[in-house]
Amino acid sequence: MPVLLLMSMCLFASIVLTSFKAETLRTDQVAVTVRQSLVEEMAALKQQSQLLAETLELLSQEQVSPEQAQEAFYRVKQAYKRVEFMAEYLDPELAKKINGAPLPKVLVEEANYQTLHFQKPSVRTFPPEGLQVLEELLFAEEVEPGMAKKAVVLAHGLQDAVSLMAGSLYQQPLSDKQVLESLREQLVRVMAMGITGFDAPAAGREIAHAAVALQPVLIAAQQYERATGGKARTYSSKAAQHLQQAVLYLQQHPTFGTFDRLYFTRELADPAYAALTALQQELLPTAASVHKPVNDHASSLFSADYLQAAYFAKQDRKEQKPELVELGKVLFFDPVLSANNERSCASCHVPSKAFTDGQARSIAFDFKGTVQRNSPTLLNSVFSNAYFWDSRAVYLQDQVPDVVVKSDELHGNYEEVVQKLQQSPEYRKLFKRAFSSPADNGLNTNTINRAIAAYVQSLVALNSPFDQYMRRETEQLGASAKRGYNLFMGKAACGTCHFAPTFNGTVPPRYLESETEVLGVTASADFAHPQLDEDLGRAGIIPADAWKHSFKTPTVRNAALTAPYMHNGAFTSLAEVVDFYDAGGGAGLGLDVPNQTLPDSPLKLTTQEKQDLIAFMESLTDTATVFEVPKRLPRFSKNTGLNGRPVGGRY
Fold it and tell me: Does the pLDDT value for residue 158 go beyond 80?
């Protein structure tokens, strides 16, 4: 009996191990199949890019028509869309050379200029390249002189980039992890960029290209459905079903202006994303990591935890201790950080006004005029890789000292601030609780900055009526707001710079870069007599012509609460903001803005469409999330004159 029992156990173990190995091999086989298909599609892209270069050579010799050149371009664009999901995943920088935005690339060569203030930044500017630049040339309403020759040069550069990517792919094995992550990224890319026309500046066919871009995602989901069993098969089947419906919907509704982006995203693409997320966690279960912006466990583009605030922190890339956040909140509302003990961070960032102050430009220290720029909201500001209007700070923590020491803001001195805080037993206790590790070294400049940054990091408000609707927590969203979302992500082109789900300039699908834009913002809302605002923006920090008048793209979440608008507070209402964009920005109003990144052609929005856009932005208001103000501030045992200071200061 013992022998028979042992043999039975061995046989059972053998069967279990064999079936586990078979299951592993079956799923690994999907990655192998995807790679084989990708190699074939990359070869087709190489061929089409070569044919485009040859066609453009003939165009420069007037041996083919512009229409023939345009068709050759379409074939290349379509071929790229078939490999986009993996090309962008494996080598996003090289992918930019193939299909990057048609904007100059500015390279800062002296990266330490911010720490070595005597050293000026050195910059080099490279002209734009790739499919989008070609598109603007080939589909321009007016053909500029020498267009064909420029296009030939760009086409040969495109060929080189495609060949480089193809050669790299031939040496690249693929894993299930890479395949599944690339599929999910592609879904986000289509939802947040593809259907907005982000990478189609002139030629059209955006919706048709989105359908092509999702085809390999659908095929891969179907392959996982065949290769897996159990829950994995259930999830892959759901993903394939939603993706099939999404592709079909794109194919049946190819008209850009009337495409229902809200329905497509909420009912088809986002559920497919949820299924792919569940599939990846079933096949490759991992703990959530804050070492990337996107939470791999989030089931929706509009999940409250889709982006991880902890990733964007500098020194504390983790969920912050409640004691640290509480300390930061107290410091944020305490005027003791300022030179006159009357002004605090909350002076210009008032909770009831979505952490703005309602001024065009905030009142300067000691009421001596105003500061240079408008006070932006701090709600959801953590979801960024650049801070201040001119993007001069990379992390929240780096933003704090600039405000504390700046003469027209808090006008503080860190040595004096530390000395003052040390005189409060309550503050010493708060710092000790927040920084319990000896390595943190108690109360100092660094810990002050980290605490305030931790509090700002906690100011996340992603529970607006629109979010609740997209997460299917409610069926209530006004018809005007629904139309407004479709306009925002479509005809009005807002979504090409204000990316979902944060609706700021942090770029999907990886959210690793925050854009600035040149809009030609006017000095006032007098559009009949426009004058360009003189603020150089980003170019005031880094002297690059491409960045003259370039400013960070802020979030439009809670915009209903944050008037006035733009870096200079020139527009007092959302209606004025919409009118400005509708006109084509400063260049559309007739101003000389040669580097404007906003298209200068009028949007031709109707009165109803403008109202719908505003209704959508108003639906992004989150009043459900409450941010409490400290009931009181820490007391001082010796310097008792400070004990009468009010929470938030006297400004």
Answer: yes
- Report pLDDT for 650: 87
Q: Nearest Cα to 23, choosing from 297, 282, 221, 222?
A: 282
What is the end-to-end Cα distance of the chain in Å, rounded?
A: 88
- CB-count exposure of residue 124 (10 Å: 0-12, 13-18, 19+): exposed
C-alpha torsion angle, residues 503, 505, 509, 510 (rounded to 10): -130
Distance CA 341, CA 645 (A): 8
| Size of the chain in residues | 651
Share of the chain above pLDDT 70, in %: 94
**What dihedral angle (degrees, nearest 10) is formed by the CA atoms of 306, 308, 311, 315?**
170
* Cβ pair 139, 152 in contact under 8 A: no
What the block records as the tokens of 3 is 């022998």
Scanning 290-345, the segments in alpha helix (DSSP H) are 322-332
Amino acid symbol at 647: V
What angle is formed at CA 221 by the lines to CA 219 and CA 226, rounded to 5 degrees? 95
Identify whether the C-beta of residue 113 lies closer than 8 Å to the C-beta of residue 143. Answer: no
List the Cα angle 87/92/93 in 5-degree steps: 125
In the block, tokens 């809009």 appear at: 519
Number of CB atoms found within 10 A of residue 585's CB = 23
Compute the average pLDDT of residues 48-56.
98
Distance CA 62, CA 265 (A): 44
**What DSSP element (H or E) covers 419?**
helix 414-422
Tokens representing 350 are: 């008032």
Measure the CA–CA gap between 591 and 530, rounded to whole angstroms: 7
Q: What is the reported pTM?
A: 0.93
Could you count the other beta carbons within 10 Å of the beta carbon of residue 229?
11
268 in Cβ contact with 242 (< 8 Å) = yes
CA triplet 258, 253, 556: central angle to 5 degrees?
A: 45
How many Å apart are CA 198 and CA 212, to the nearest integer? 16
> 302: buried, middle or exposed (CB in 10 Å: 19+, 13-18, 0-12)?
buried
Q: CA 585, 591, 596 angle in degrees (round to 5)? A: 50
Answer whether 285's CB lies under 8 Å from 367's CB. no
pLDDT band, residue 122 (cuts 50/70/90): confident
Under 8 Å between Cβ of 98 and 131: yes
Please choose, from the candidates 556, 588, 541, 631, the residue with its C-alpha nearest in 3D space to the C-alpha of residue 120.
541
d(CA 316, CA 455): 12
Residue 35: closest CA among 102, 90, 98: 90
Cα–Cα distance for residue pair 529/526, rounded to 1 Å: 6
User: Which residues lie below 8 Å from residue 164, measured CB to CB, with a gap of 6+?
Assistant: 94
- 3-class DSSP string for 543-568: CCHHHCCEEECCCCCCHHHCCCECCC
- Cis amide bond preceding 602, omega within 30: no
Task: Say what the pLDDT of residue 282 is.
Answer: 96
Q: Which residues pair with 395 in a beta bridge?
A: none
Lowest mean pLDDT among 65-69, 295-299, 311-315: 311-315
Instruction: Give the amino acid at 424.
Output: S
Q: What share of the chain is helix, strand, coil (3-state, %, to 5)?
A: 55, 5, 40
Contact 570, 521 (CB under 8 A): yes
